User: Fold these one by one.
Assistant:
Number 1:
Amino acid sequence: MGAVFGGVMSFFDAVVGTLLVFAVGVLVLGLANKVWVYAATPAPLRIPTTPAPLTRLGAAGRLAREVLLFESLFRADKVLWALSALFHAGLALVLLRHLRYVLNPVPWPIEAIQPLGVLGAGAMMVGLAGLLARRLFLPSVRMITRATDLAVLVLLLAIGATGLVMTLAAPADIMGLKIFLAGLWRFAPAPLPDDPVLVLHLVLAAVLMAVAPFSKLLHMAGVFFSPTRAQCDNARERRHLVSWARPLDDLRPR
Amino acid sequence: MTAYAVPTLSPDLAADRPPRPVPGAMRDCRSHPAKPSHQEPLGFPGELVDGWQEVAVARLGELVARYQSLQVFLDICVKCGACHDKCHYFLGTADPYNMPVARQDLLRSVFRHHYTTAGKWLGNLAGARPLTEDVLDEWYNYFHQCSQCRRCSVFCPYGIDTAEISMAARDIMDVIGKGQKYTNEVITKVHDKGNNLGLSAAALRNTLEGLEEDVLEDTGVPVKFPLDVKGADVLLVTPSADFFAEPHVDGLIGYAKIFHQAGINWTISSHASEAANFALFIGSYDQMHKVASRIREAALDLGVKRLVFGECGHAWRVAYSFLNTFAGPWDFLDPRYPVPQHIIEVTHDLVSRGAVKLDRDANAGVVATMHDSCNVARAARLGDRPGGQFSLPRELLAACVPTFVEMHPSTVKDKTFCCGGGGGLLTDELMDLRIKGTKPRAEALRQVVEDDGVTHMVAMCAICKSQFTAVLPHYGFEMEMVVSLHQLIGKALRLGAGA
């Protein structure tokens, strides 16, 4: 097939390659822009949800527990916590495992976790399916669900499913993929392996990356700037005054 | 009293069985809109301005640029629903717009439409919609069904705080001329008279003298209630309800007894005769700043050394978390004390040093439980360690009553339920909402009344006290069971013995 449609496929390769580069660019620049906006927006009043740590280091610890353990979610809803933890931990493992497609040589820790990757993919799929079921079957959650909320879950499920097919049923040409990807970063075009499942997987992943900075996936960046979690409790000890509030301050009697 | 549909209390807790949403359940429950006479003194237009949509959208953009909380919170909600069953108003009313996430989305949808790429391209698919008259109506209705208690923010994986969103929405509505009567009228009174009740200095002096006579008659001890005393050490700033309402005033008597017994030279100021700062509820930095500045002026004018706040939840939030920003720096006060201090901190310190003595027998027969006030629990602190807002009042309570019983753990400390009347909702036309919103607290209270024989519920917030005394009788509780913490302390305090 490759021999017959070689010319057409290489145009197609270029489209997929461009899409990937574009998506990564949008993801990186989009997130960087949002991080900049979040960091640069003033926080005129101290609003940590208390009890809160008294020091900045303590607040960093609270944030770390929030990001790594989903501490607040655990207190809110154990089932939702379990599903989210399965999905996010699974996704983290899978992403780490994917580093071997872009790193050369492959560092040993990445090599070491390869067998865990399949488990990670399974956990991710179970978590996603559970989250989707919640959205469809719990009346209150269904009521707050929009098309885009479902779309993100379906997109992630489709990415996971195509990935699992390649891992379990129809192994992709990993070396070919690696050469193709390396070609993109080095501006040395190389053909994409002739594998519809792989192509679908890559295109869906590109879509996910490209929409991330415009969607609720921004939570991955925003959580670090959430003032109720990131601020420490030191309002009596330190005076906090932002520049837009200064003119009011200067009007006061001394 | 039977005019309201009072929810039936269940033996288990509301929090454990969230209701199935009933769309529109609270659509017709709305607070009175502000008249021009409530709006204009605060610098807000008297009625809906021409081109209000553009004005509102522009104000939204301005607020988002000014507040990191809004900037982040409007972007990052994933609609996971962790908050959906955490709001007392949803648990009590079943109206889906009282789910925190849905309430936030009333504003978020407009933000998405006017300010985000996804909203512009995908519209309703991404939950975006323009600000129309219907949307504004929903805003007015449901942002005045949020008591800004922050319980949802405790459980949100990103700490998204609906209070921030509802404050922003109310700010926008004020700016376009669609304010709420109750809150704006109260703020106007503060500017006019120095307190929420519109109480004049002469009337205040009269009241305080009356209290001196009452306490003298009651105890034989000449406990003073000083007003505008220059050179006093402590300026007490307390909610004006403490001067009149029951059981608030018994709390004020408790503070006075503590000051008397500890030999602390204190005063109330007629210029700042109000701890409450209702400008918090409308999210107006300018108004909060202006109301808070009275306290700085009073402290400077009277030449006091310390600043102490009475029992009031949102007032303590503004005092503890914001007063340094609005009215500091406090370099002219005694640096040995935190500024401001809470009366509970003062009393706790005196009791732990043995400077005053409490006698449990004075409260014989009392089985007390404690209602943590939302703003003290989740938006401030007492003492020098995180969680002091829970331990300090409990230690004091345990020292002044024979028996202390904790309500169900999912309803206390940082998981406490709002009384149902906070955030500018303590107004008669919202009584239906207020009764329903108290349901989760009433259920937890009934558990300990039935299982442990609880006779009294202690509150440390003027709004909680007013709300509970008005609403708990609808659930069959005696209003006298609601008491101020310093009421029990005042009763247990051994007056006269070697101060």
Number 2:
Amino acid sequence: MIEILKRILEDTLQRLNYQIATYLPSLLAAVALTLVAYLAAVSVRWLVYRIFKGLTIDKFLRQSGVAFLVDPSGRLRATRLAAESAYWCLILVGILLGLDVFGTDLTTRIVQSFVFLLPKLIVAGLILLGGAWLGHYLGRSMLVWAVNENLPTPRRLAVLVRVLIIFVAVVVAADQLDFARSVFLAAFIILVGGAVLAASLAIGLSARGVSRLLGDQNGPLDGSAERSLWSHL
Amino acid sequence: MAQPTLPLEALRAAEVIRRADIVIGIPSYNNARTIGHVVRAANAGLAKYFPQLTAVVINSDGGSSDGTCDAVLSARVEDSHLMLLSTPLLAAHRLSFPYHGVPGKGSAFRMVFQLARQLDAKACAVVDSDLRSITPEWIDLLIRPILFAGFDFVAPYYQRHKYDGTITNSIVYPLTRMLYGVSVRQPIGGEFGISARLIQRYLQRQDWETDVARFGIDIWMTTIALAEGYRVCQSFLGAKLHDAKDPGSDLSAMLQQVVGSVFALMEEYDSIWRQRTGSSPAELFGFRFDVGLDPIAVNVERMVNSFRRSTADLGEIWESALERPTLAEVRNLASESGRDRRLFHFDDQLWTDVVLQFACAFRKHPIARGTILRSMTPLYLARVASFVLETEKLMAPEVEDRIEQLCRTFENAKPQFLTKWEASGKAGKHYAAARSQDAPRPLTAAQLEVNHD
């Protein structure tokens, strides 16, 4: 009995020994790589803060409306964004390199698939960001137009425009990532088809009918007394 | 940017005429009903007051389809040259921007100025083609200060109904006066006299393809003259009566073009207007007299309703233009407007703050300029409604006093505005600073809902 226990213990210790001998250098290397990556990330973040400071990127982001999109308070700083992006990119690279050191099938597959997917992820992310910006911009334009034209429910119209544009961006991003392509495409076709049908019906009702319809809810739109005032600079 | 080539028929006509001392430009678009009178008045004015000088009347037309060109030709006076030209109007222009009376007025003026330069004219006057009150004296009053008193720019000075010219009275006049320190009562009047050297300067500019080509042209001309130190005066022309404008015109687009031009020029002449304080009136020519004016009907109810509805919807856009205390006041005003309409009052200080803060926002957010300017429409309507209520029982001189009071409010706000203007051109920390934590909080969404109903 004791012999058996002793053999089991020895086997276990041997396996542990073997595993330590096999994986410890890799683990140490991985930890070292991650640590180096962390140090590099911290340095690069510091460096980016210094480099970007004084550049006009913050102003550009604020003026282009991107800052307000990402951070409605308008306090987003490009410097911080760039520095944090560089930091996390380096940390990610460190982790991937660390995983690659082990050389197992699983880690290799993880690294490979990530490297393969990364450019697509970046492009998809940019498409989504662009879509969100465009949706925000055109939604606001629609809101102002609808308010000035006295259309009913201007905010809903603005949201509709925003959602439509963001949806189109999502479809394009999904296509980029090869993710549920057919589902998104079908939804997109249904949506566009529906929009075309709605537009056709609206035209079919004729401008006069639409005008009367809107007029019922918001008062007369044409020939009202203050037009003469509005027409004079 | 290359100068556009003049149409062939214009060049041929210029070759035949060779030179002219005076050029009268009349931009038009579907003004057959009134343009004949304007052309006859111009010709009569030239014949009566400047018989010794050679003159040309140029109708620069935007593609009228109602026989405007025939009306011009049939009004020809044998003693003076009359040319009929066409302003090429791109379909995109027409489609992209709502027309109002004279589409592409700036483009029409550009052609007139090019011809004036070609003909080596000493003075040029431009008059609208929808005028019903123009007399031959107008030509004298617009041209004489240029030819015989050494002025470069003659702005009109009219008697207008108290509810006429509301963009002028509530925004353009007070703002231009505050900025450039010269009181020109009708900076976007539509009738101007211009010297040869100022025409030369206008044609050197590279911004003809902007809003200047549309409704921005009048304020653009006035501002350049004021900012660049040209000699500016005013001529009293009597009453301004003109044809009813196209009811399909879009107020917010018009407001965007005019106010956008003012704000854009503010950026350009920043270093000039910063130096100027107070204001003095531009010299006034002509004999002042009282005249009867066309009544103008105003639907205050609808304007106030439009403002009240918009306050809930446009809050997110106004937040990017107005400071918190101003926005809170606007919201408060909207909520109170639902109670007693006769007590509705958009005071001068609040209106001044709104206009000046929109100017800063225009500078701060170049990409969203159109949206920001168009979102100003309901605020403008509220201010007009308040002005109408306030001046309902006032006579013209008292109304003029009220406008004077508004101008003084603008002028008093200038020192503080300078700081904010400077901040709006700098990085985001200034933006954050402007929205200080100590500022009063705006009304809550729940409060707004109650007010909205």
